[in-house]
Amino acid sequence: MKRFIILMFLLLCVPVFAQRKLTTNEATILAVGPFFDSTNGITPETEIDVTALTVEIYRELDDGSICTRFANFVPTASAGSNDMALITSSVSGMYSLEITAAQVNFTGFMQITIVDTDSAGIVGLPFFRSFIITAANVVDADYGTDKLQVDQVEVEGSDATTYIEGRTLAAADYFLFGSDDVAVVTLLNGLAGNVITAASIANAAIDAATFAADVDAEIAAYIWNAATASYGTANTYGAAVEDILADTAAIDTGAEWLGLLSAVDTDATSATHATTYVTLEAGKASNDAYNGMSIAITDAGDSNTETRRIEDYTSGRKVTFDRALSFTPVQNDIIRIYSMPYNIAAAIAGGTANTYIVTDTGAVGGTGIADVAVWLTIDSAGARLIVSGTTDDNGEVIFYLDSGITYYVWMSKSGYTFSDNGEAWVAD
């Protein structure tokens, strides 16, 4: 008898929720729980190992078919597609659970169950809850500001040809699709056919006062949404717009903007080049003229562009890079030299954005530190600077870098000591 009473008590402790509607094929986060200790059925479990749980999603069909298990998975603690974690400040064992769009990619009734399958010992009681999976506008109509769609199928039986709003209509007052043509309708809403013509409208009869309040918006929409080519006649404003579009189309890529901003825009000569230097077709005839500036070299064969800092420049127009390219320049490769900061130039030239995060623990998950000076070098000794920046309020700084290259990270801020200065970092 005691065992029966205990079993009934534990079953009563299993939480039951009213059905909630979810949007089909849309990821969501559910509140699941509360989870209670399996030994006494009343102590909330706030430290469950979620990776020891199994979640199953069952689909209930309304066509007489057998129910099916639509999906099952083991939750992840973080950085997964089905993260499950204790809700902040919860003392009752309530957890949040991420559900992907694919796991609710159907409509109808759904049951979700969560059971503890830990081989080391079951900790919490099982959980189950029912849901209705339906269209987005149904959910929004129930819980938001949307309204359910209503399709009008019929008026007056099969058609509305004889009676509308309490009035009997003559045959000439309506248009019957399928049998009438435009010539049959001679009277509509009391107006004779062709009653409105250009000659029948008096001069200045239509002015601003006779228009609807939104007429200016409607006219503007008509003009601004028209194709520019429709108004491109010579010596018109339309032609002027066309000219502007043609000019801007010529500089619509990062490489073309870079050409406008560069101090030198040339190509490689027929001389022998290497991955660490190139000789320019044009440039200043003085030593060190471009030292410290940035250079972008575009491979004429595959249009690949790489950005480097200039270590040395000679009067013979030979440029030595701070590090080797992934390819050897050849004649007619496009060369551009510019004096803007390396990080900006690399971004325009097509470098990949890489985010470096500085935290108080030195690892992901720690608290970000703002206003930290961060710089990258190409050598482990920290002598050959590539780019620098300062962390934002989240402790993050973005560098635009060549993928696959190893850089060395250095940091500095008053009152802080960074033990990982000089660590190697491979750009994505």
Uncertain residue segments: 1-15, 183-189
Assign an overall shape: flat
Number of domains: 3
Mean pLDDT: 78
3D architecture notes:
The protein is α+β, with helices and mostly antiparallel strands. The protein folds into three domains: 2-143, Immunoglobulin-like (Sandwich), CATH 2.60.40; 254-340, Thrombin, subunit H (Beta Barrel), CATH 2.40.10; 351-426, Immunoglobulin-like (Sandwich). 14% of the residues lie in helices and 28% in strands. It contains six helices and 24 strands. The protein starts with a helix and ends with a strand.
Quick structural summary:
It is built from 6 helices and 24 strands. The chain has 428 residues and is an alpha+beta fold.
Keywords:
428 residues, alpha+beta, Immunoglobulin-like, Thrombin, subunit H, 3 domains, five-stranded mixed β-sheet, 6 helices, 24 strands, flat, disordered N terminus
Explain the layout of strands and helices.
Layout (H helix, E strand, L loop, with lengths): L1 H12 L6 E4 L4 E5 L20 E8 L7 E6 L10 E3 L8 E5 L8 E9 L10 E8 L1 H8 L19 E2 L2 E2 L18 E2 L2 E2 L22 H10 L12 H13 L4 H8 L2 E4 L9 E3 L14 E5 L6 E9 L4 E4 L12 E5 L3 H8 L2 E6 L15 E5 L7 E6 L5 E6 L4 E7 L10 E4 L2
Parallel strand pairs: 1-8
Antiparallel strand pairs: 2-6, 3-4, 3-7, 5-6, 7-8, 9-10, 11-12, 13-18, 14-17, 15-16, 15-18, 16-17, 19-22, 20-21, 20-23, 23-24
